Amino acid sequence: MSANHETRNGLWIAAASFVLWGLMPLYWHLLKNVPSLQIVLHRIVWSALLVAAWLAWKQGRGWLKATLARPRAAWMLALSGVLIAFNWGLYIWAVNAGHVVESSLGYFINPLISVVMGVVFLHERLNRVQWLSVAIAASGVAWLTWQYGQPPWIALGLALSFGLYGLIRKLVAVDAVSGLAVEGVYLFLPALALLLWSETHGAGGFGGGYGIVADGLLIFAGVLTALPLIGFAYAVRRAPLSVVGLMQYIAPTIQFLLGVLFFNEAFDRDRATGFVFIWIALAIFAGEGLWRARRQAALPAAA
């Protein structure tokens, strides 16, 4: 298979992964009658079973030992598992509580939050354009805080939890699928125990209480958790990371459009002003990154 064909496949699969992530609010909306905690617990259990089985089929039974043998992997993946479970829970609750637009804001500002974390924790340096992007985005958040009397807590919670998750996964240096599987192993037994406790104490409804359709959707949530992440891991190995990085804005854009057009959430002039600040910041940040990547790619050719 040619390199160009591999690259095209990677870009198509990346686009499909981001579209799937963007459409997730529609899926969680189908489960709006199921408590958010129950959805998260089922998502953990079924995705852990699916990803662990897939890795066992691809790599044999030694995949867990090999992954945990990495330096600091055991405790760092436990921490990242807690962070991603919190992120999932907050996101599902926000969608089914009518906060899809604010949830999309969290994933719009997440790349800039990640940049700031790189500066704080990894001592990375930003150029003037990148600092300008961060300042404009902070102005947008400040505007929203001033207009509504409180910070956009849902957006900030999603961005910070996912930003910290990304930071830990960068430090632990394991591939995306194996890392997700280990996180699932850590979370599996507590999630299963909570589910069983809920079922025996009248707080659950799986197996009849929610209906057969809802039961099927809860099980398939594990597939929807694993598929886009596996696709993303496939894509970043075959397509330019700078392009895949720009494509990540597909997901929050779809979420935002769903929030306004499908869920009919309020989006007045004051909220739009805050979003415009953040969109301008993202456009500057993404444009600078793309220009820098093209400049670096041109240097070997010039030499």
TrEMBL record:
The chain crosses the membrane at residues 12-30, 36-57, 73-93, 105-122, 129-146, 152-168, 180-197, 217-236, 243-263, 275-291. InterPro entries: EamA_dom, EmrE-like, RarD. The keyword Transport applies. It comes from the Bacteria. Keywords: Cell membrane, Membrane, Transmembrane, Transmembrane helix, Transport. Its main location: membrane. The keyword Transmembrane applies. It is found in: Cell membrane. Pfam families: EamA (PF00892). Residues 10-145 form the EamA domain. It is a multi-pass membrane protein. Belongs to the EamA transporter family. This is EamA family transporter RarD. The lineage of its organism: Bacteria, Pseudomonadati, Pseudomonadota, Gammaproteobacteria, Lysobacterales.
